[in-house]
Amino acid sequence: MAHVLIMPRQGNTVESCIIQEWKVKEGDAVKSGTAVCIVETDKATFDVPAGADGVVLKILSDAGEDVPVLQPIAIIGAAGEDWQAALGTGSKNDSRQDAEAQNISPNNSHGDTEALGERNNANIINNLTTDLRASVPPCDKTENNAISPRAKNLAAKEGIPAAVPGTGPGGRIIERDIKAALANRTPMTAAAKAAAIGAALPDTGTGLGGRITAADLSACEAGGISGKTADSAAAIPGEGAVTETPIKGIRKIIADRMLGSLSESAQFTLNAGACAVQLQELRKWFKTKGESKNKDENELAAITINDIILYTVSRTLPLYQYMNAHKTGDLYRTFERVHLGMAVDTPRGLMVPVIRNASLLSLKQISAEAKRLAAACQNGTAKPDELGGSTFTVSNLGSFGITGFTPVLNLPEVAILGVCGIELKPVENPDDDECAFAFAPYIGFSLTINHQVVDGAPAARFLKALCQAVENIYLQLAAG
Question: Exposed, middle or buried by CB within 10 Å (0-12, 13-18, 19+), for 374?
Answer without folding.
Answer: middle
